[in-house]
Design goal:
five-stranded mixed beta sheet; Early nodulin-like protein 1; about 180 residues; 4 helices
Length: about 180
């Protein structure tokens, strides 16, 4: 009888952990490192560098942009479209001078970022944030075909929040299973 009680308790713990992991995975956005390995620095190809990077991704509400840069050498400054176009940093929405800087994309629409030091050399980024209501929190990009049954099968970017949450959730799920196996 004691073994059945231990098994029942472990099964309940496993179920709670599984439900928590599923809810947590759905509610957290992805973290994108701006420029990937290149980082947030003066681009050799001008503004095209970060424009091309942004075009490779679909951003959703809740996602986070991480700007990796050396403090004192660059800035990550959120501005409006007019200030983005003219590289004007006089009226920033948010100005981060210490790297790495993180910005949460909390509403749909366009976001504009510049380096106040190197904007005229093309260190600027514009991203469009879509609704998080589509399957897996992503909308198909213009001109792409709708998602196939079963959703997007591509993995999240390495080091993203989704990747870390999935790893932590796997650990949380496997520990009760391991304990149950030992108690059996």
């Amino acid at each position: 009888m004691e073994m059945a009680t231990k098994f029942g308790s472990c099964a309940k713990l496993l179920l709670v952990c599984l439900m928590f992991a599923c809810v947590f995975e759905v509610s957290v956005g992805r973290t994108y490192t701006v420029g990937d390995g290149f980082g947030w620095q003066t681009p050799p190809a001008g503004a095209l560098t970060f424009s091309n990077w942004a075009n490779q991704h679909t951003f959703a509400v809740g996602d986070i942009l991480e700007f990796n840069f050396n403090s004192g050498v660059h800035t990550a400054t959120r501005v409006n479209k007019n200030d983005f176009d003219s590289c004007n940093a006089a009226n920033p929405i948010d100005n981060e001078t210490n790297g790495p800087a993180r910005f949460t994309l909390d509403t749909t629409g366009d976001y504009y970022f510049i380096c106040t030091i190197h904007c005229n050399q093309g260190q600027k980024l514009a991203v469009n944030v879509t609704s998080a209501n589509s399957p897996s929190g992503r909308s198909p990009s213009p001109g792409s075909s709708p998602a196939t049954p079963g959703g997007d099968l591509s993995p999240p970017p390495p080091g993203s929040v989704s990747t870390r949450v999935a790893a932590a959730a796997s650990f949380v799920i496997l520990v009760p299973i391991f304990i149950t196996a030992i108690l059996s």
